[in-house]
Amino acid sequence: MLRLADKYGPKRLDEACDYLLNFGATELRRLTHVLENGIPLYWKSTQELSPAPLTEQALGFLHPADSFAAKEVADERERRPDQPTQDP
After folding, report:
1. How far apart are alpha carbons 31 and 18 in whole angstroms?
2. CB count in 10 Å sphere of residue 13
3. Considering the entire predicted model, what is its pTM?
4. Do 7 and 16 meet the contact criterion of CB atoms below 8 Å apart?
């Protein structure tokens, strides 16, 4: 591995390892193949994309965690403790 870093550079080796680890590939022959042939362009372009910023319209859909039904169900159980709980 150290010789590969000397030959291709640590940045390129790191990128190749990252690429292969995303697929669960850990064989040295695969790493050598990626270093020799390069990382596919489609992979590089998808890695450089950043998430789109949230618009005002999208922000309108966000809610705090306590606004979801789980809290309401828990509150309902506290109000009526005499009824048995039903697990899904």
Report:
1. 10
2. 19
3. 0.49
4. no
